[in-house]
């Protein structure tokens, strides 16, 4: 039994030595890039200060929006949305059409994916998020396969959107 206990102690010693060698090699290989990154952030300009303040500005803006929304902003939100949609359509009609078409395809695909959950119509955002999740996976796979072409993407969106509009799955 002593021989077995001795070999366990020997194995633990080799493991410690291997871990130490690994840490030493990792430190030696990464210390220069690490120090370079530290030096690059010492000279902060206005852009870095804005990046540091951006989360605080975002939180403050969200709190102001929620306060205004609680008062009466929720009544004019549809008008704000229509104004932004009209602005986008006038500024970039083709891009706006592509975004709206992708949104409709994501909703259609999401309704198909979440059909077993028996979601209510008010749960449409859940369907859209689920659809976007599946679309991201499909688009990533097509991109990795080298098949990222406009006709293929348009065909995929047609396959997802047109049948759904005739089947009554879209409100």
Please specify the SSE layout and strand pairing.
Blueprint: H1 2-40, H2 46-71, H3 77-91, H4 93-113, H5 124-144, H6 150-167
Helix pairs in contact: 3-4, 4-5, 4-6
Which labels suit this protein?
6 helices; mainly alpha
Structural class: mainly alpha
Number of strands: 0
Q: What is the succession of H and E elements?
A: HHHHHH
Largest sheet composition: none
Structural features, described:
- With 171 residues, the chain is an all-alpha fold.
- Among the domains are: 9-43; 92-167, no CATH class.
- The chain is 82% helix and 0% strand.
- The protein is built from six helices and no strands.
- It has helices at residues 2-40, 46-71, 77-91, 93-113, 124-144, 150-167.
- Helix 4 crosses helix 5 (124-144).
Concise structural overview:
The chain is mainly α. Helices cover 82% and strands 0% of the residues.
